[in-house]
Amino acid sequence: MTRMSEGLSGGPADLADVPPETRSSTGPLHASVNDPALTSMTLLNEIAGRFPDAVSFAAGRPYEGFYDVADLGRYMSAFENHLTDELGLSPEATRRTFFQYGRTKGFIHHLIARHLRNDEGLDVEPESVVVTTGVQEATVLVLRALRTDTRDVVFAAYPSYVGFLGATRLVDMPVRAVREGPDGIDVADLEEKIRRARAEGLRPRAVYVVPDFANPSGASMPLADRRALLDLAAREDVLLLEDNPYSMFHSGGERLPTLKSLDAERRVVYFGSFAKTAFAGARVGYVVADQSVVGGSLFADELAKLKSMLTLNTSTVAQAVIGGYLLENGCSVERASAREAEVYRGNLRAVLTGLEEWFGAGGPMSGAGVSWNAPKGGMFAVVTLPFRADDAMLEYSASHFGVLWTPLHHFYAGNGGFRQIRLSYSVLTHRQIALGIERLAALIADRT
Fold first, then answer.
1. Any keyword Transferase (predicted)?
2. C-beta separation of 107 from 284 below 8 A
3. What is the structure's pLDDT at 11?
4. Is residue 287 within a helix (H) or strand (E), and if so which, with residue range?
5. In 3D, which of 206, 198, 107, 195 has the Cα closest to residue 156?
6. Which residues are bridge partners to 41 per DSSP?
7. Mean pLDDT, to the nearest integer, of 320-336?
8. CA atoms within 13 A on the CB side of 256
9. Count of beta carbons in the 10 Å neighbourhood of residue 257
10. Of 324, 390, 252, which Cα lies nearest the Cα of 86?
11. What angle do CA 276, 104, 126 make, to 5 degrees?
């Protein structure tokens, strides 16, 4: 019988040669454990925890000034009334809905379908909706389903949301980087990258895209580019994975249509979330997967099979709270999050004004070589610095100047963006924003 040490370490002779302090009782782990995409959030949280008095432009959390614990009970009561009065459930069935294991695909799918119709002009069958434990689970499920062998690849504009990059690592799905410009993903570059991948014997499966106020860049796609992207997806026979957490936080004008609402050929798998609009603690997201798969089944049903082995079901209590939140607001997330959207608009103006006052023409540091973009909504802006802005510089910034930000190289999987930083302004007051930019200016003066 093989001893444990032999099975894990290659045999007693090998183990004897290894110093006790470096021996492992687990053996090697999956490469994703040490991948920069998976360790970046932990690193940033650790630095923030050590400098609690620093002004933090690092956290991508939603604004919390309107939260009230009393709302949770009211939302749950609204959903309970919905179950009994509108759906006709008995008291026993209602109680079971709250307390027992729930349906794998979720039980607020019909309310999400109402929200999509009200806010996006999008008609989806409720059965094409899978309610997930945040969008992160939805991303893993979709990538897991699409990744069949080593030929499969997915594409994403760089810089790209680090959560998506981490999900690709978990399922061993290679990512091909696509250029991103001021108007979002470069459709011409994407077409070239897809054809190049096919020439290498690879199988392009999908393109991850955030058309509205992308994280981290804040870029948004014009309508013409959205249509061109859909045309390209049809020509090249790939799916578009549309992630839409920020479109409600626009400048106040008319919102552009989502890719999904323009999708006539069911090329778009749509990710939605209540983390930024309702509240992150619920951990409720969803995926609309209305495509047919080989054999004629619904893609949503195939994803539900995977979910049943991952989380069984999304928290029934959390779903009830989000269900009540939707019901109380007429299943309009735009209406429900109007106050938060106004806060973000004001904070974005404060950030852009502060950068212009310090680094713009006539400002005290106008010649420092600092530039920035001007998003039209969302929660993030990007600043380009005249020096390397890596994790070591973030530590220096926090310890010496009391200001935190996010190095953009985390959104390039460590392969770019070393002179850029992301400023998140969602949870700050105007006074904190002004102080934080002043401290950032002091850091830049120190380095230049």
1. yes
2. no
3. 43
4. strand 285-288
5. 206
6. none
7. 98
8. 20
9. 17
10. 324
11. 70
**Coil, strand or helix: which one is 129?**
strand
User: Distance between CA atoms of 307 and 290, rounded to whole angstroms?
Assistant: 16
Is residue 103 within 8 A of residue 131, CB to CB? The reply is no
Helix (H) or strand (E) holding 400: helix 391-401
Contact call for residues 140 and 171 (beta carbons, < 8 A): yes
Spatial contact of 167 and 143, defined as CB atoms under 8 Å apart: yes
What are residue 371's DSSP bridge partners? 384
- Using DSSP's 3-state secondary structure scheme, residue 427 falls into coil
Where do the domains of the chain lie, and which CATH numbers do they carry? 33-59+338-447 (3.90.1150.10), 70-335 (3.40.640.10)
Do 409 and 403 meet the contact criterion of CB atoms below 8 Å apart? no
Q: How confident is the model at residue 404 (pLDDT cuts 50, 70, 90)?
A: very high
Read off the pLDDT of residues 262-299 as tens digits, 9 standing for 90 and up. 999 999 999 999 999 999 999 999 999 999 998 889 99
- % the chain with pLDDT above 70: 95
Distance CA 335, CA 184 (A): 26
Alpha helices in 171-258 (DSSP H): 187-199, 223-236
* Tokens encoding 77: 């009561």
HSE of 441, CA atoms in CB hemisphere, 13 A? 19
